[in-house]
Structures are given as structure tokens and as C-alpha cells.
Amino acid sequence: MSESRVPVVAEPKARERESRFARLFAAEVFRQREHQTLGERARHAYRQLQEVHRGLGSGKAIAQDLPSLFALFEWSAMLAPELFLVLSGHFNLTLNALMGLGRGRTDLEDYLRELDSGDSVGVFLLTELGYGSTVFSLETEAVYDHDRRGFWLSTPRDAALKFMPNVAAEGVPKLVVIAARLKVAGEDQGVFPFILRLRGEDGLREGVRVVPLPERPLYAMDNAMIGFDRVWLSFRDWLPGDAGSISEQGVFHSAYGKRERFRRTIEMLQTGRVALACGAVASARASLSIALSYARQRRVAVPDRGTAAMLDCWNVQHDLVVGLARIHACTLFGRFVQEGFSRGDEEREALSLLAMLLKPYISKSAFDVIQTCRERCGAQGMFGVNRIPEYLGGCQAVMTAEGENQVLQLTAARRLVMGERLRTPLDGRGAARTEGSSLFAERARRLRMRIAQALEAPLGPEEDRFDRWNAWSTEAIALSEAQGEALALECLQVALQAHGPSSEDFRAASAVLRVFVADGLRRHAGWFQSEGLLGAEEARRLDVELREACGELLPHLPRLLASFALPEALRDAPIAAPEGYVEAWARRFR
Questions:
Q1: Contact between 255 and 76 (Cβ < 8 Å)
Q2: What are phi and psi of 400, to 5 degrees?
Q3: pLDDT over 90 percentage in the chain
Q4: Where are the extended beta strands (E) located within 169-314?
Q5: Which distant-in-sequence residues (6+ apart) come within 8 Å of 165 by Cβ?
């Protein structure tokens, strides 16, 4: 691993984590299993989770050490995709819920011990058959019984069936955090989390019904529908944090409205969004490494030359080099947000807005780049043993999990339009934006102002605020995308400033920035021209500029790939094998 490199993973603590995770993921349980069914792989994920606990120790320590937790997600996304999708429910949404909402409580210690050791797997039950992102409409009920000082958990109708948590695997103990509507003395007090031992060694809890869902062709997970028929929860199983209380007389009290109560008890979603999105980007880095290895080897017919390496062909070169620049920017953007969460010195509102901008932008970028890698690898990109198809499935799940991407974009856009301050990578650095980054920032600014002006205009006679917002929803999504792209570009600029102008790292970072800007301007050229920000001649030159920028970046590909500090185990993929893909496949034939 090169010591002189563009700093994606560079500081000593990061290198120490790399070594620790390399040792962990060298275990036999993490090796690819080529002939397992999706159901078998889903069950295997829980054996991998037990190995994580054996190798890294306390689950509570892992959950609280955010840099290590983020690293665990990224390594899993690359080397154990089935485990990757289990991690957030276990660490972020269950362990963190108990530690955060149960802080100072000793009556939850037995639950914490089971999750801390990995004896039980944590799962979060939020969405329902009838309700996805509209969590304030959830119908699962937890009715307070004052005489018994506890709650009856029920599914009042089919739309309230919990859909689709990973709880179908028999014989795997599950502790679940359930979002349910609290009712006290007949009054609806909003949605709160509760904890339930859903499945123990002796099977399902009485009153719980679990129906496995059909297998998804894209990823391995034991998803299910869950219903509750008057399941008893003791008073300690309620996890209100500081958002509410019930007195000895059975009176509910809260200093907050229903929406704020829910928000205060569900903050662990934000960390999960960041971890999942950065894991998706890690799988895109792995895809690029595998695809570039193949593109250097694969020979294709070309006029006048006979054959050439696939990477020498402009269409392949463009796709993979542009993808590398985009994913490098997404990686740095992810690191910027991860550092904010890890320091904990930001207001939670500022962090949540960054998370809502980050997840849709970098997870969709990761999916697009992985899909491109799959296509450029042709038939080789369709085999799971070459890993890329598994990464596509993981990205699909990430784009929906813990806040569907477009829903998060709309929420983030609304907050931007309302004037919420956004922390950016260049804040406090005393550095001016480059011309390219200024254009990207200006695009986000103009979209934000245009939507704000439209929303402030008087409503028509038969128009309400929903109609107005709905009419501008596509522009709101564009605003979120533009803001995410502008933030990623600023991260590239910060990375550039970290190097001396005569260094090789500076030249590599400068080439990445140039490709990213040229590609972005080219994709949005129509918009920039319509706004008078890009002249016709400048627009016509963008194809040439991008080609020149890619040519400038091409010699730096080994340095950039080294900066990603990718696991050696990725070379187990036949098309990334050190001896060459022909020999790797032929060895199976002999």
C-alpha cells in the first residue's frame, strides 16, 4: 500500500483499522460461497455477524466507535454483502437505540448483554405493508394497560403488518425494536419505539406471526411480514428517551409535539444512512478496481492494429475513468460527513441535513458506476464470483433502506428552501471556490431560490400548499442532487489544497477534479446554457475537455486505486486475479 497517495484512507488510525479488518475478514466464514442459494446466504450472514463479535469484541464498543463502525460497513459491503445489510439493524438501530434511549437505565442490561455479545441479533421494525416513508401514519398499536403497567402490542389491520424486516430465519434469536403507536387512556400519543424478544431459542414469542417473503433475485436476506396479536410488553420495554413519560397515575406527559417526539427517538437512523451509503460507495470502489483489472487484460479487435487492451478504447476508458473520479469525490464526501458524526461537535440538525443529502447522492452515484462496470465487463460482469452483480443488489437495497432516496431528497430540499444553514467542506478554510465549483454551487443556489420564490407566491383559488409543493417536487429533487454534487466537488477541492503544487499527489488530485467538473458540466450543459452560465462555444468544447481530462487522469489510476486501500481478497474474483482472468478460469476447467 503506497504511502504517497491522494488521502482517502491515510492517517495512522485508519491504517491500524485497515490491518484489524484485514485480519477479521481473512476468516474462512467470509470467503465467497459460490453455490449457496440466496436463503442459505441469508442464514450465513448471521454466522458472519458472530465472527464480527468474536473478532472485534463488544458490540457496544463497535457501535460507539463510529470510525470503526463505518469501516465495518465498508469492508462488509466489499467482502460480505449479505452481512452488510444486517449490520445497520443490529448496531445502529437496535444497540444504539437501547444505549441512547435507555441511557442510565439498569433494567435493560440483559437485552444489552445479548446484543453486545452477538447472542441475539438486533432488527428494527419500522415500515408497514401500508406505510413506508410515511412513518407518522404507522398503525401498529401499543395500548397502555395501567392496571398491569405495561402495553398490548397489536396489528389492527392488514396494512399495519410490519414489512419487511429480516426475521424469517428460524433458530436465530432476534431482539427487535418496534415502532408502534402509543395509546394511553384512549389517546393517541404518537409513534414510539418498543423492544421485544421476537424469537428466542424456543421459537417465536406467543402472539407473533412471521411469514417469510419470497426471495429477491438481487440480494440475500431473510425478509418477512410480521403481525402481532395482543403481545404483552412490560413497562421497561418502552423506549421513550426524553420524549415522553407515563406517571404512576397513568397520565402521559411530553414537552414535545408528536412529530418531535418521534424525531427525538429515531435519530439513530441518521448514522445508519451514512454508514449504508458509504458502504455502497466502497462496493463501487471495489467494482472499479475489478473492472479496471479486467479492462487492462481483455483484448478486443480494433482497425489497423489487430487487437488492443479494452482500456485503450475511448468508450471504456471514458466510462471507467469518469466513474473513478465520481467515486473518488463520493468517497471524500462520505468521509467529510463521517467525520462530523464521529466528532459529535455538530448540531444534530446540521448532521441530519448532511446525511439526507449524502445518502441519495452517493448511493445513486455508486449504483450508476457499478452498473457501468457490470456492462463494461460484459458476460464476466454477470457472474457473482466476480462480485459486481452482488454489489448492484446491495446498492439497490441501500437506495431504499432507512429513507427511500427521493423521499430524503424532498425532505432535504424543503429544509434548504426554508433557509436552513448547510455546513460545507470549505467552511472556515479561507479558500475560494474554483470556477468549476462555483458553477456547481450556483446551480444549487438558483434552484433553491427559484423554488423558494414559487412557494412564497400567493396560492391560486383552488390550490393548497401541497399542490404547490407537489408541482415543484421534480425541481426539489434536482436541488438535492445539485447540492450533493456541489458538496462532493468541494471535497475534491479541499483534497487538492492538502498537497504541495509540485507533488504527484497534487497532479493526481487536480486531474480527478478536472474530470469531475468536465463530466458534470457536460451532463448539465443544457441547464448551464439556459441560465447564461455557459457559452455555446464552451459547451461545444466540453467533449474535448472531458477527453483531455481523462487522458490526464489515466496515468494516475494506480495511485488512485492505491489510495482506496482495497482488500487483497478482491483479487479472488477471476477477472481480478493476479495471474490473469484466463488462467483463473482455466484452472477451474482443468
A1: no
A2: -100, -35
A3: 80
A4: 174-184, 187-200, 203-204, 208-212, 223-228, 231-234, 245-246, 252-253, 299-302, 306-309
A5: 89, 123, 124, 125, 176, 223, 224, 226
**What is the distance between the alpha carbons of residues 477 and 360, in angstroms, rounded to a whole number?**
10
Single-letter amino acid code for the residue at 134:
T
3-state secondary structure of 229: coil
In total, the chain counts a number of residues equal to 590
Q: What is the pLDDT of residues 297-309, one digit of tens each?
A: 999 998 888 899 9
Per-residue pLDDT at 2: 33
Nearest to 269 by CA among 343, 321, 193, 207: 193
Question: Which among 81, 54, 45 has a CA at the least distance from the CA of 169?
Answer: 45
Pairing status of strand 150-154 against strand 162-166: unpaired
Comparing CA positions, the residue from 136, 128, 111 lying closest to residue 237 is 111
Q: Tell me the three cell numbers of residue 505.
A: 499527489
Cα–Cα dist 465/418, whole Å: 14
The SS3 call for residue 300 is: strand
* Global model pTM greater than 0.85: yes
Task: Return the SS3 of 199.
Answer: strand
Enter the C-alpha cell of residue 305: 492494429
pLDDT band at 35, cuts 50/70/90?
Answer: confident
Q: Are 60 and 112 in contact (CB under 8 A)?
A: yes
> Is residue 90's pLDDT more than 70?
yes
> For residue 145, which of 182, 190, 101, 192 has the smallest C-alpha distance?
182
Reported confidence tier of residue 258, pLDDT bands at 50, 70, 90 = very high
Question: How many angstroms from the chain centroid is the CA of residue 481?
Answer: 15
Q: Which residues contact 526 (CB under 8 A, 6 or more apart)?
A: none
pLDDT value of position 437 = 66
User: What's the whole-number mean pLDDT along residues 481-488?
Assistant: 97
Per the CB < 8 A criterion, the answer to whether 162 and 178 are in contact is: yes
Owner of C-alpha cell 478496481: 289
Residue 522 C-alpha cell reads as: 457536460
**Whose grid coordinates read 472499479?**
288
Q: What are phi and psi of 402, to 5 degrees?
A: 50, 45
Residue 350 pLDDT exceeds 80: yes
Is pLDDT at 13 greater than 80 in this prediction? no
| 274 within 8 A of 73, measured Cβ to Cβ | no
CA 238, distance to chain mean position in Å, is: 28
How is residue 313 written as a grid cell?
A: 478504447
Angstrom CA distances, 126 to 45, 86, 131, 403, stand at 21, 15, 9, 11
> Helix or strand or coil: residue 426?
coil
